[in-house]
Amino acid sequence: MRDLTQSEADRLQEIMNTIDDLMHEAKDIFRNTNQYDRSKAYPYGNIMSALNHSGEYMNIHDTTMEDCIESVNVDGDDEDDEA
Q1: Cα distance between residue 15 and residue 73, in whole Å
Q2: What integer pLDDT is reported at residue 37 of this predicted model?
Q3: Average pLDDT, stretch 7-11?
Q4: I need a labelling partner for 31 at 20 to 30 A (CA). Which of 50, 56, 78, 80 fits?
C-alpha cells in the first residue's frame, strides 16, 4: 500500500468539510417542514456521526471518516496503518 500525498490528504479533509456543510444546509432546508425531526434523527444523524466524533449525535460508528484521514500515512509518515 502506498502513502497519501499531502495534497490527497488535504482533499479528503476538504471533502469531509463539504459533506458537513451540505448536511447543515439540508438540515436548514428541512427545518420548517413536517419531515424535520425525521430527517434530523436518521439521515442527518447517521451521516454526521460517520464523519467525526464531534457534534450533537451519539457516535455509533467505531471508525469515522475523520479517523481514517488521521490514521493514513502521508508522504512517508512513520505511523502504522490501521486496518
Answers
A1: 18
A2: 92
A3: 93
A4: 50
HSE-CB for 52 with a 13 A CA cutoff: 12
From the number of C-beta atoms within 10 Å of its C-beta (0-12, 13-18, 19+), residue 31 rates as exposed
Mean pLDDT computed over 21-33: 95
φ, ψ for residue 4, nearest 5 deg: -80, 150
* Cell numbers placing 51: 464523519
Predicted confidence (pLDDT) per residue in 51-67, tens digit: 887 766 666 667 888 88
Calculate what percentage of the chain has a pLDDT beyond 90.
39
* C-alpha to C-alpha distance for 34 and 60, rounded to whole angstroms: 26
Q: Which phi and psi (to 5°) does residue 51 adopt?
A: -75, -50
